[in-house]
Amino acid sequence: MGWREYQLGKSNARGFSLHKNYTPRDCPSGLSGYSIFENTFQGLVFDFPRDEYLKDVLVNGTRIPLFWGSSSLKQTFAPLQKRNFTRVVGTGPTGLVLSYSKNYTTATSEALFPQAMALKICVLLTITLCSFFFRLASSIDFNFPAVFNFGDSNSDTGGLVAGVGDPLDPPNGQIYFQKPSGRFCDGRLIVDFLLDAMDMPFLNPYLDSIGLPSFRKGCNFAAAGCTILPPTGSSAFPFSFGIQVAQFLRFKARVLELLKSAKNAFRKYLPAADYFAKGLYMFDIGQNDLAGAFYSKPLDQVLASIPTILAEFEAGINKLYDQGARNFWVHNTGPLGCLAQNVATFGSDPSMLDELGCVSSHNQAARLLNLQLHALCKKLQSQYSDANVTYVDIFTIKSNLIANYSRYGFEQPIMACCGYGGLPLNYDNTVRCGQTKVVNGSSVTAKGCSDSTEYVNWDGIHYTEAANQYVSSQILTGKYSDPSFSDQMPFLLKLKF
């Protein structure tokens, strides 16, 4: 019978209507629903005409029967607690997987929430493909015992805040954590979604020593603002890639030392000794090397510095390999010319912008770095035949999102959600998201927008949770990686709202 795609529309007094005017071509692939918040999801109610017979729903891989009323054929699927609600990433968009017995004609769908809110979610209707999807999903081997992450603010889960005491004010963290979490985001980062997809807890930052942090499943060495190149005397962010690698070496040595102790109290907080060889080493760094260079160098000098940047990166990878690392996952650099910060600073002349409104020179530099980074990953794979080096094309995923933002349920591709200044960018580099400062004699606050799920950009530099969720879903299709693993897709991405 195949499968069809539908989208739940905007909220009304009772819930949401199911629109039939979405076709597979129109409906975005990957995740498109971002508006189910903590402690709000109660259940779904589906109303079907008498000639339809919806039988069951797949949730977290478990088939659950639906219950029918005697007259109206109303089926109530409730309550579903937020931890149990799953959307399935298939060859099309994500959603509940529903099996039915007759050709679908028309229906309405309503979701009961304590308060009305917009839901952007595609519902996957299927009968024969359900078991096929889940069989393929379970065949993919992302079974790493631990993850060790290196990077900048794109994957920093609290390192800079812990390391230098840099405060992050609300509304940072408002979507998922309900408070600032050390992430420069309204919620979760790409690394959080990827860890969640692997059934692993979020990574604790290496520098955070308060609250008995557990490093059993890995450690995050990323810190916001950091570069691949060593910091200069004027650098405000000291934890460069080389420092992060050195921190890892210290971390590993100390772990192995503690594991030898007769005391077992530490073991539940520490990775096992073999996790260092079996774990996944993730990298998302390099954006700040380029972005920072443009403040003091012309484009040709920025481009000329790329081999030096990548030589430093290669040196760090070699050190990790010598320490037993064998599984490397490398994100390339996104389209930094499309960040509101760079558009505001370098895009005052319209001739400097491309057709998307992004700074051309910055994206040109990002493309060249990515080209050489890809070649480096190929070289490393050839050099280390017993290693696995995966290169992930974040640039293409993010560029596609910005170019086709409305297709994926967004309304603002470049403008910051949390900022000051209003249209067109809502960005002022003197007033960071959540801060209150005096500007031109008046006290102003960089506030968050009313609905961050409509924005790609959170604070002028970093992406919103909604955008990070979309990027993660595309990463997990496998088609943006080299080597690709798209033939092993679809992947089951469990979203724990």
UniProtKB/TrEMBL annotation:
Keyword entries, A-Z: Glycoprotein, Hydrolase, Signal
Record flagged with keyword Hydrolase: yes
GO MF, one annotated term: hydrolase activity, acting on ester bonds
Domain of life of the native organism: Eukaryota
InterPro entries on file: GDSL, SGNH_hydro_sf, SGNH_plant_lipase-like
Sequence similarity: Belongs to the 'GDSL' lipolytic enzyme family.
Protein name in UniProt: GDSL esterase/lipase
Protein source organism: Rhododendron simsii (Sims's rhododendron)
Lineage of the species this protein comes from: Eukaryota, Viridiplantae, Streptophyta, Embryophyta, Tracheophyta
